[in-house]
Amino acid sequence: MDELLSEFLTETSESLATLDLELVKLEQEPNNPSLIDNIFRLVHTIKGTCGFLGLPRLEAVAHSSENVLGKVRDHELEVTPQAVSLILSSLDRIKDLLATLEETEAEPDGDDGDLITQLDAMAAGELAPVAEAAEPEAPAEPDIEVAELQRELKPGEVSLEELERVFQETEVEEAAPSPVESTPAAVAPKPAASAQETAPKAAEAAGKDKSGESSVANQSIRVSVDLLENLMTMVSELVLTRNQLLQMVRGHADSEFKVPLQRLSHVTTELQEGVMKTRMQPIGNAWAKLPRIVRDLSLEVDKKIDLQMLGSDTELDRQVLELIKDPLTHMVRNSADHGLEIPADRLAAGKPEVGKIVLNAYHEGGHIIIEIKDDGRGIDVARLRQKMLDTGIASEAELEEMSDQQIQKQIFAAGFSTAEKVTAVSGRGVGMDVVRTNIEKIGGTIDLKSVWGRGSTFTIKIPLTLAIVSALIVECCSDRFAIPQLSVVELVRASKESEHRIEMINETPVLRLRNRLLPLVYLGDCLNLADAENHKLTEGAEVFVVVTQVGTYTFGIVVDRVFDTEEIVVKPVAPILREISMFSGNTILGDGSVIMILDPNGIAASTNDVSVGESAGAAEERVQASAAADTTSILVFRAGNEQPKGVPLSLVARLEEIDVDSVEKSNGQLVVQYRGKLMPLVKMSDDYDLRETGRQPILVFADGEHSMGLVVDEIVDIIEDRMDIELSSARKGYLGSAVIDGKATDMIDVGHFLTKAFSDWFGLNETGAFGHAQARKLLLVDDSPFFRNMLTPLLEVAGYQVTVAGDADEALALRESGAAFDCIISDIEMPGMSGFELAEQLKSDGLWQQTPIVALTSHVDPEDFERGRKVGFSDYVGKFDRDALLTTLSETLAEKANVA
Amino acid sequence: MSTDYLDDSTNPHGTTDSEEFVTATIDGQLFGIPVLSVQDVLGPQNLANIPLAPPEVAGSLNLRGRIVTAVDLRRRLGLDPADREKSMSIVVDHHGELYSLLIDEVGEVLSVPVQDHERNPPTLDPRWREVSAGIYRLDGRLMIVLQVERMIDFVKVAAAA
Fold this sequence. Notes:
The complex is a heterodimer of chains A (900) and B (161).
Chain A: H1 3-28, H2 33-53, H3 56-73, H4 81-104, H5 113-123, H6 147-152, H7 155-171, H8 191-211, H9 215-219, H10 225-250, H11 258-279, E1 280-282, H12 284-287, H13 290-301, E2 305-310, E3 315-317, H14 318-339, H15 343-348, E4 355-364, E5 367-374, H16 381-390, H17 396-401, H18 404-408, H19 431-441, E6 445-451, E7 455-463, E8 468-476, E9 479-484, E10 488-494, E11 502-505, E12 508-513, E13 516-522, H20 523-526, H21 532-537, E14 543-550, E15 553-559, E16 561-569, E17 583-588, E18 594-598, H22 600-606, H23 612-616, H24 618-624, E19 631-638, E20 645-648, E21 652-659, E22 663-666, E23 669-674, E24 677-682, E25 695-703, E26 706-711, E27 714-722, E28 725-728, E29 734-740, E30 743-748, H25 750-757, E31 776-781, H26 785-797, E32 800-805, H27 808-817, E33 823-827, H28 835-844, E34 853-857, H29 862-871, E35 875-878, H30 882-899
Parallel strand pairs in A: 2-4, 9-18, 13-15, 20-30, 24-26, 31-32, 31-33, 33-34, 34-35
Antiparallel strand pairs in A: 1-3, 4-5, 5-7, 6-7, 8-9, 8-16, 10-14, 11-12, 12-13, 14-15, 17-18, 19-20, 19-27, 21-25, 22-23, 23-24, 25-26, 28-29, 29-30
Chain B: E1 18-26, E2 29-34, E3 38-42, E4 57-63, E5 66-72, H1 73-76, E6 88-94, E7 97-103, E8 105-113, E9 117-118, H2 126-131, E10 132-137, E11 142-146, H3 148-152, H4 154-160
Parallel strand pairs in B: 2-11, 5-7
Antiparallel strand pairs in B: 1-2, 1-8, 3-6, 4-5, 6-7, 9-10, 10-11
């Protein structure tokens, strides 16, 4: 039997059983809204699924029941025994149909016109409180006319609705149809009796199903996760006991227990794996149905849809998987149905005819992230606004205060729908509300980003709590801790003698790692472990640095020892310990010991003033709009006077101390022999002198072949802060001043000093007054991180908002994501797609067709110049000619403005 | 004080006229924990240290695959910390979470007549009064009834203080 069908049968019979109960309850408490909602959802689900599976009879009955229930929910109808009975009888009908379906895999012939007529009449408020409706027998005869039904459901609507139900069906809980009566006066004469009658009948019917041909339901068993959880605990116990036994036997060379114990050991291992497997499933299982759903939907609504699924082998705890399955399905259907436009509209909007829906699942920082992205029309904020006004959700004044994103989030509110009319598919306002509820149930969050005209991205974040992860076990001050492997980038052994040693910048430990400085955190300090101080002071001791990444922030955690990695099941910590942000949970290791799981987010946040949690999601946000909210590590130093000076740490290759005696003069330039080469030294100003004797700290800047040392007095600190240059400076060598760590700090212009060392590093060295550009958005495409880092502050201080891309692909990805810029600056020579090719592509189609592109190159020759013009570059600037770049930019932008 | 009447709730059925307690001694004082809330009684255990935890938390341990948080009752009562090598513990269930209460020694299970119950003397040290659900007059000694909830809610107490 079709897998979908059998699943449908299993789930629907469960739903029906629940519905019976809920309906009877509803009759007793007719005003319980949560009961009605629940019933409504269950019926909605059944309806959707039937439609999807091509079961018109079932769907028609369910649809009509749902209509009635919808009225009840909206208080247009009252709950009366007649209504309940009517719905119950339609449930019975559904059960009969299902029984046949299971036997023959097809719906029986016949028609339910009688029942549907009654239901519709009730929905329309026309049904008199006649008792027929209440009789459960009435609906049982399936053979009548289909005509009514057919009329009601247009083909398009039907399929969509069905799809929706399919989604929801997966959740299957209990949908109970609640009948409603239009005539309030008509209090049923025998309400309780009829309800009771119906219920047993339903049970009977269900019973028949099961005993008879319900073989499908026997193919798989639903086991509660609690049971699995229990099993798992027992197995862990077994493993521990086995380990103990093994240890005991190891002492005796020829023990008669040896062989049986070995056998026991094998069996235990297999058992453990088996039980583990019952809990873990790749997320792909939840997606398996999607391609078909999307395919069918695309036919129904006549759209071309390309569904891409990435990361489908990301493993999830079964429980979590079950809970997100339906929301996911629902959301994909939503994207296909509402998100994507019809091909004609897409073409008109300059998009490819085929709409794209991308599903992506991955682990990140102790969470599982699932993205559902479409490149459709996005969410119309204006319409949402109007809708909110109309429905009185928010006043005009309140709306004024809300950001677009806040307004967009309104789609998650209960009962909110923007659909103009209720169709079989959508518009009842059940959808996103259900999605959100389900995700929040497992402690997850859902977020939405939508750009009108470019599409929407939903991001679901599910906490690790229920999942099994691989963790690195480390030791610090003789306590062991687990660090989730996902956030560990690499391990470095550091000792005084080895290549890697920990150095201090004013009490701040750092590690040189591949020409970068890595900020370090002592785990012992973080956790206030008693003897942490002693440990740190143990000179020459070998320590390990766990290089950890949280979002975009990379840092090192210093620990005493590193053990193995182990698969662990994260358990939440006791409520009295939840306050401690350093831990994300605890777990029991294979040897039976309890161990705390470190939360890298918490550690990063505690050692760092900025909220790293925010920057974790920043990578993408920067893509959307580089609002300069990101922080930069800034190296603060002193040179010449007391005024602190700063430079982005990422520009600094190394910190060195040189012996003043080793400084030589060559060709009027101070140089020092460094790593087998001569490295020029540059002073902050001409009247600033080196120390007479001793060691002089220098900052080494390097790019490819070149390196240069900037002579400073003292390195003060490394500070994580925003680099908002507030005062632009006319002084040579300074970009301006920024407030770093509460102090006004001069930000030095590294470019200025570079040109002092190498005239060919940059051509000009003038830091003139820049053109006015009020927060124009620039995209800088350059493969050299050095130039990116160099030019970004330069451009920012000139008033531009800069977004960077490391290569053409990244730039194109930005275009896909819908980012908009006033101007693009692109390098010509880049690995992969060159600047010429990029320009050609950008000019040929897409969002950036009108955006001017300025070429940036290290060698200007007329031929290149000509070629550049041809492929669509607006202008052409030498890489080292910073003034020309700024002038060109303001000219280009002015031109663009004029044209517009 | 209204809390003085809470002791009625420690009687599980309110119908019998005697109550059963697992007794324990801390610093020479006899304490009683309602027998129905006791899950397990353990000998000295290896406790895993929990850095940054409140001082009353002695650590955590593995009880048949479940993680149990150990609370040092001596500290909770403002006494010197427990000797972990020797301390026994009583495991209780609190809202589905297991806690192990470190005490000096576990005694027998006592069934005591309800009429021997006495309110907390108002002069009792506030730290003790807070966790005590009253006193039982036993033959020759007094037994303090521990309120399990209060023993574990010290975070809130500390925060409120």
